């Protein structure tokens, strides 16, 4: 009997050790999935198939990696916000779900959309990592800031799942360039998600759950710890939470909100009882889009006083290169 118990303990210990080693060695493959099983890396569809006016945009990150994005424009052209869209961790920027989402977003919000392919995804070069994707997001924002055909004072970051972690980091680092941020079904950190996906490791990783040595936290190369930076974001934040999310527990969004409101009074939280991880927008229906529109109307409005100067830009399809004095105050001034 004693020998059997020893064997059981050693077997369980060996199982945990193997699991820990696999998690450390294969972590990038678990976090980043540029190509879904059975599919090619090439985009399954482009905005042209959706009859949307768009540009293929190629630019480089600060470390020289060549990146690809789609800039989808309003048609007919008119002033409006520009949404910098950061996708989830799996598949291309325009999978079947995002195709319909993009089309409805353009119709409902009357905005431009800039969709970045992270390094290693789609037509972007390189290999994904947290450090690299942070640089990619910054390069995308810097590209938008340099454009003359958008209102650069109305750039809104939108991130779903992993994209929320990417967007939160970008907004924290650019309080004067990003006007507002929208987070949908975003996790507190990859560490906490690992503890959920691999329950046998919950004593060794994450910040929630049972107390333990948490030694694996030191070996995770892409922690994406949004919970540690969310209270440092100065811009208005809209949280969109699907209460039936099968991947990210809705409690993660609640924790992010609770941490954010400690230092930011411009936070709005909307939950959707039937929303799952990728279909919250669909199950939420008009209420989902109305929540975003009200948020944009409140925090990223069109500046009526700028109509004369903006009219000059409209005539040429461009905005004035120099911002007028009537531009909105920054989030730091608003506080």
TrEMBL record:
The lineage of its organism: Eukaryota, Viridiplantae, Streptophyta, Embryophyta, Tracheophyta. The keyword Membrane applies. InterPro entries: AB_hydrolase_fold (IPR029058), Peptidase_S9_cat (IPR001375). The keyword Lyase does not apply. Pfam families: Peptidase_S9. It comes from Zingiber officinale (Ginger). This is Peptidase S9 prolyl oligopeptidase catalytic domain-containing protein. SUPFAM superfamilies: alpha/beta-Hydrolases (SSF53474). The chain crosses the membrane at residues 7-26. Residues 135-281 form the Peptidase S9 prolyl oligopeptidase catalytic domain. Keywords: Membrane, Transmembrane, Transmembrane helix. GO terms for cellular component: membrane. GO terms for molecular function: palmitoyl-(protein) hydrolase activity; serine-type peptidase activity. GO terms for biological process: proteolysis.
